[in-house]
Each structure stands twice: as C-alpha cells, then as structure tokens.
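Known limitations

Structure tokens in this collection are predictions and should be treated as such. Users comparing against experimental data should check residue numbering before alignment. To illustrate the layout, the record for DUF1622 domain-containing protein is reproduced below. The input appears on top and the generated tokens appear beneath it.
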Amino acid sequence: MEHWLIAVSEPTILAIDFLALAVIVVGTLIAIKDGIVLLMTQHEIERHARRRLWMRYSHWLVAGLTFQLAADIIESSITPDWDGIGRLAAVAVIRTFLNYFLERDVAEIRELERARETEKPAP
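Generated tokens:
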C-alpha cells in the first residue's frame, strides 16, 4: 500500500509544482507586459494604475503559492523521516506567511479602491 501511495504521489507532486511554476511565470510575463505598456502610454504613472497592476499580479502569485502548498501537503504524506518533514514544514510555513501577507495587501488595496470610488462626487 505504501509503495502505491508513493508511486501516485510523486508524479502528482511534480505535476502540481509544474502547474504552480506555470501560473507564476504566466502571471509574471503578463505583469511585465502590462508594466511596459503602462510606462509607454502614461507620462506620469498614476498610483491607481500601479495598484491595479500589483493586484492583478498578486492574484497570480497567490494562485501559484496555493498550488505549491497543495504539493507540500501531498509530499508530507510520503516523507519518510522527521528531518524531511521538518524541512517541508519550514517551507510550508514560509509559503503560508507569503500567501497571508499577499492576501492582506490585496484586501487593503481593494478597500482603498472602494473608499475612493464612494468618495467620487457625482457628475
């Protein structure tokens, strides 16, 4: 039974890690393209435009980190020794904190944008 679990888990972990990498790379390429377009089209970059760019990019990063955490959870089920589990736990904690702070930043920016929209005077 243990061999079956390892045989199924290892390619699954690899596939999820690849998916996380693909999500982060695609998000980074989109952010680079959008950043270049923003620089080329605006003489002075508005804070609002930078925030939107950051929010879109952070969504990609959060998705990638979430996939990586999923792979870590699966990997913890087949790690044979406590040393490996400890290293895996440290990586998972770091990724969880990164994810938490990214989500918090996104929520703060979203609240700022909502507040700005409600403050706009009606035409």
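For this record: The chain has one domain: 2-117. The mean pLDDT is 84. Please report discrepancies through the issue tracker.
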